[in-house]
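A common beginner's mistake is to predict each chain separately and then try to dock the pieces by hand. The better habit, illustrated here, is to supply every component at once so that their relative placement is modeled jointly.
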Amino acid sequence: MDEKLQKTLAELYKLTKEVTNLHATQAVLEWDERTYMPENGANQRAEMTGQLAGMSHEKFTSPHIDELLSELEGSELTKDPDAPAAVNIRELRRDYDRATKLPQRLVEELAKITSQAQGVWTKGRHSGEFGEFYPLLEKVIALRQEQADAYGYEADRYDAMLEDYEPGSTIADLSELFDKFRPELVEFVKAIGDSGKQPDISILTRNYPTERQEMFGEMCAAAIGFDFQGGRLDVTTHPFCTGFGPGDTRITTHYDPRRFNNAFFGIMHEAGHGIYDQGLPAEHWGTPMGDSVSLGIHESQSRMWENMVGRSKPFWEHFLPISRCFFPDALSGVKLDDFYFAINDVRPSLIRIEADEVTYNLHIMLRFEMERAFFSGDLKPRDIPGVWNEKFKSYFGIEPPNDAEGCFQDVHWSAGLVGYFPTYTLGNLYAAQFFAKADEELGGLEAMFARGEFKPLKDWLRKNIHQQGRRYPAKKLCEVVTGKPLSHEPMMKYLKEKFSPLYVL
Amino acid sequence: MDEKLQKTLAELYKLTKEVTNLHATQAVLEWDERTYMPENGANQRAEMTGQLAGMSHEKFTSPHIDELLSELEGSELTKDPDAPAAVNIRELRRDYDRATKLPQRLVEELAKITSQAQGVWTKGRHSGEFGEFYPLLEKVIALRQEQADAYGYEADRYDAMLEDYEPGSTIADLSELFDKFRPELVEFVKAIGDSGKQPDISILTRNYPTERQEMFGEMCAAAIGFDFQGGRLDVTTHPFCTGFGPGDTRITTHYDPRRFNNAFFGIMHEAGHGIYDQGLPAEHWGTPMGDSVSLGIHESQSRMWENMVGRSKPFWEHFLPISRCFFPDALSGVKLDDFYFAINDVRPSLIRIEADEVTYNLHIMLRFEMERAFFSGDLKPRDIPGVWNEKFKSYFGIEPPNDAEGCFQDVHWSAGLVGYFPTYTLGNLYAAQFFAKADEELGGLEAMFARGEFKPLKDWLRKNIHQQGRRYPAKKLCEVVTGKPLSHEPMMKYLKEKFSPLYVL
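With all components supplied together, the output reads:
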């Protein structure tokens, strides 16, 4: 191959690796901030992360990157569009163009106003009073609209925002998908409610000592394939997963000695994210080929391990006897069927992050409808509570007692994260479609789980998804892996097959 | 004041603060590496720290800093040489000149060879065989000699190395100091040995559960003034103290459930370093006025809290009854006099880092003599063991069974850290001289300690030492604070007053 091209490519990679190292450094600072940093370190830490963010942005938006990309574009390196070099050139161009499209003033104003808005939102969540929040939310929305216009879009302004989280996805795709999914889901939730059945969930609020939760959680995370020689589990307030490059992926959780669910399924969820990060091709670190596809695909991995594996009956066939040694107070005498039903309790609830697998997606669809409306200007911030409460009642049959447990329960909108929520449901749908395909190709995942065998599924995901990096956009990846475009059907099928027996439907 | 000068100064500070933020970021990466990083993260971490080191070096050695300094030097800002601006201009010039004096090739070669030498040294420490180490040590010494020549020096090449750790100190100062100290110390060690007295040190190797050591250690660190709202204590292999700027100082230790001394006095030692860092003037962060003076002054703070406070009788008058609640197995029935004698056991031993307060300085003087000799070329690396063993016998009356417990027990020389060891003894001497002055000015420190009152001493150190930043070089600081140049006399007086009663001399 052309030696000059090869040199240009090497120079481009050197620069993007330096940028990625700075991002990874920032991630270390943020991980430390959220796990171990003493409280008085906050101001100085903000200075350090701010400076690093500025340095990596400056490095990545330098015109030299544009020159290198221009030299490579259309060259023989891009002939096979799925080859690593072609993928990297395509994706770096996309990232570069987006990064250079925002005026500095807008970036700074967004940082300032969203930080203010989050402060006021936090106060509102404690007091239940959001009067001060409305004018700030209005400003945040206006700035995000301006951002969307700066990025540009084809059909809908909302698409420009979606592109940040789920590249290639549009409001049209989502609407089509959700419009099919919603009625079937609402009907299914109703059928469950009408069944009159409810598990004994008191099993899950007995004595689960924190240290034992940690040992048991780490054991299960390791069992499903999270590598603790290249990762850690620590404690934080709002759990997350982060990574500092090959060999170092960190997951976090939050323990409550009287609740089993939160930490355990939180660990399974974050371990799912972590297994994805640990499976990215290390040799491509620092380029898009070594990066994850989208939030939706990332969420598909966490949701699959949390729900389709961790909340499955065969998983507990294997782990319930073991967990009885860890939690004799809570679990001795508890039968598999009762435990399995308890961890799969379905009931309408106010808070999204505590919702079960079935109703969870309704929480998301509601938010999608709300944010479409206020982002397009059809809905004024002050009118959000009224519309929310009405819709909530029609989906869930209950009404929030206040806005802190209602329309303003999540931090997202205060940060201007419009277009983020749908990726959670995309994650669920991708998870179901991938899982069905893996089950078909591997034959009998359930029997494997019952034996405590999770490696075949992990290896399948590694090969088909993790190792692909950003070779394909999410929609295409789904087609390549499953042979079909994303649909709500595998999810609906999964839910019915799992929950119909539990609720005797 | 001249507006232009003010602007130039502000620009200089902005740049040095950015450099300091990068150093602090690197310190976070290194702290994490030594406390929590999973083993597989090592390669990627080395890339990240390497890149940051390069970036901060490039930023600090930019000719623009030279221009800014040149504008400020000789200006009205430097009229009062002890005012913050003048101090910063003087010290930044010193740092800049040193940083720009080393050719890039030398820096890279040093990094490469010392890393190799440390690897081979580590193997040697395990096997006891240092045959492979000699040629590398020779190379390391040659490179450090080259470095000293690049820095330049007046009287002795060794002074150029000392300047890195103890600015303003020279081989002539040290020789004079040590030549007076040595004979008195040797005589005192001999008298102790001849006394025939020995404490029952088995008290200190009973059952001290790790978690309780941690709680008790944190309590005592907090009691002497280490601020846990602006700091943490974590576990590592080789304990250290580090800081990431105002509000965030980290100390570390290593627990052994059958040994009380190591972790406890280690925590007191690192807390002493930490209290210094926490006391630096936050408003000068990022400039020399916000930085510590030298390794010797830093060590004076750690040694004072570890030994003069933590190993004092009144400290344990207060804390022994409390410690019995933490360690009932080990300490119930143990009398204050016996405990106090046990933690102040003096006896010749092979390993420096385990040595008592009295013999410790002999370990340092021996190393000082050795490194002077091999750095000047008078002693070939292969001849180190013979000379070491001979000298060791004459100082301590015992002979090392092998080089791993003898001349090559410390990592320093493999890293080329020549001139570093003397700062440990300087630290002890500064500590004794400062402590005597504080006692004189505050009147009756011992009575305060017996009441559990440590704030007066901390406040005195804060005002006289910590808040001074790099206003004065170490030697001058000592004169300003104590009214006298550094001398071995306060230390000898302290040792005699403390140990003569214990050994009935």
